[in-house]
Amino acid sequence: MTPPFITSELLAAAGVRHAFFTREGGVSQGLYASLNVGVGSSDDPAAVAENRARCAQALGVTPERLAGLYQIHSPDCLTLDHAQQAAERPKADAWATALPGVALAVLTADCAPVLLADPQAGVVAAAHAGWKGALAGVTDATLERMEALGARRDRIVAAIGPCIGPDSYEVDESFEARFLDESREAARFFRPGEAADRRWFDLPAYVLWRLSRAGVTQAEWTGQDTCADEARFFSNRRAFKRGDPDFGRMMSAIRL
């Protein structure tokens, strides 16, 4: 069975094969129903392996050529330059490659998955941008890696997939202060919260701004709020608010 997935109009128009998978179309049960691909979760490993195999099939690669990372909320981006690296899961939060036949994957459950491509150069990348990585510059590091492989920023197309939306992400004043310390322009991504010391934060708009600031003019958010749509998406924040012991993870992937 091929699980359903969301695509970016920009990436599709550029002829780039990619997928933002939802939580639907897998075999996991309970909290993890159904397409949980989180190797680090407490789900049945056999179910996770089957779910990942279904994602790989949808992308037209074998499970061994689905390259994942041990994500650490960093700004670190690596280059995948041989297929054997796909099974290594190094610690980082982004991949870039010019290698055909390998899908670069990141996992999220509210954080922003960012897929990027320069089709003319034959370079693609995938980044996991939680607030820490986004603020520290994971997209900037990803663009630098892509450039090293021959990509050009004025040709790069980028898409942010399903992530926590601006009406679901309430933070405190100290959180806002971190972003304002990096740039006062970040104030536009915060608005008053339900209490005087709370703010609503627009993560996808912030990531789009970071891409634009770095020279990427073709970028979009696919528009889905993971926290608000339980039927389609896993959500770390929703699980935390309910006191759930764990939560599933979704995959976003891209390939040449």
What does it look like?
Belongs to the purine nucleoside phosphorylase YfiH/LACC1 family. With 256 residues, this protein is an alpha+beta fold. It has a single domain (5-166, 202-255), classed as CNF1/YfiH-like putative cysteine hydrolases (4-Layer Sandwich), CATH 3.60.140.10. It has seven helices and 14 strands. It has helices at 9-13, 45-59, 131-136, 138-148, 173-182, 203-213, 236-242; strands spanning 5-6, 17-21, 66-67, 77-80, 94-97, 103-108, 112-118, 123-129, 157-160, 170-172, 190-192, 198-201, 218-221, 250-255. The strands form three sheets. It has a six-stranded mixed sheet. A hairpin with a 4-residue loop joins strand 7 and strand 8 (123-129). The radius of gyration is 17 Å and the shape is globular. The model has no long low-confidence stretch (mean pLDDT 97).
What are the salient characteristics of this protein?
256 residues, CNF1/YfiH-like putative cysteine hydrolases, 6-stranded mixed beta sheet, 25% helix
Mind telling me which CATH architecture this is?
4-Layer Sandwich
Q: Roughly how many Å is the radius of gyration?
A: 17 Å
**Main β-sheet, spatial strand arrangement:** 4-5-8-7-9-13
Give the helix/strand class.
alpha+beta
CATH topology: CNF1/YfiH-like putative cysteine hydrolases
Helix content: 25-40%
Kindly estimate the percentage of residues that lie in beta strands according to DSSP.
15-25%
Number of domain units: 1
- Low-pLDDT stretches are none
In total, the number of strands is: 14
Overall body shape: globular
**Main pleated-sheet profile:** 6 strands, mixed
The end-to-end distance, rounded to whole angstroms, is 23 Å
CATH class placement: Alpha Beta
Q: What is the tally of helical segments? A: 7
Average pLDDT reading: 97
Q: H/E element string? A: EHEHEEEEEEHHEEHEEHEHE
